[in-house]
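Researcher: Next entry in the queue.
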Amino acid sequence: MTLIVSMVVFVIIVLAIIVVVLLLRRQRPLPMDELEGHDFEYYCADLLKAHGFIDVEVTKGSGDFGADILAEKDGVSYAVQCKCYDKPIGVKAVQEAYAGRDYYDCMVGVVMTNQYFTAPAVELARKLKIMLWDRGYIDNM
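Model: Structure for this entry, 141 residues:
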């Protein structure tokens, strides 16, 4: 009986340690949080390549017409606007992705960020059919 109790206590302790480690890991800034604009764009481009995107191209720094990255996957073309900020992302980024998608004749517009989106940005993205890839999405990549 004491062996069973000891094993149950051991399992509970191990599970508690795993939960604490996962919580601490979530609270730490990710390496992407330390990046500046153009470096974050290359970071995102590398993530896309690692996940099966082809013809991944980082556009020029300024005058990019709202798309920082152009890419393709499974015959679908993407225009991606990247935002590495320390606060939630608003509607301006969604508008830029919308413009970039149309300017580059892409099928899909995306805003990719190390943060999360404001409610108005989510609403506008839904209306304009722009995909939002937030911190959680990138973490899962």
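Model: The helical segments are 2-27, 37-50, 91-103, 119-128, 135-140.
Researcher: Noted, moving on.
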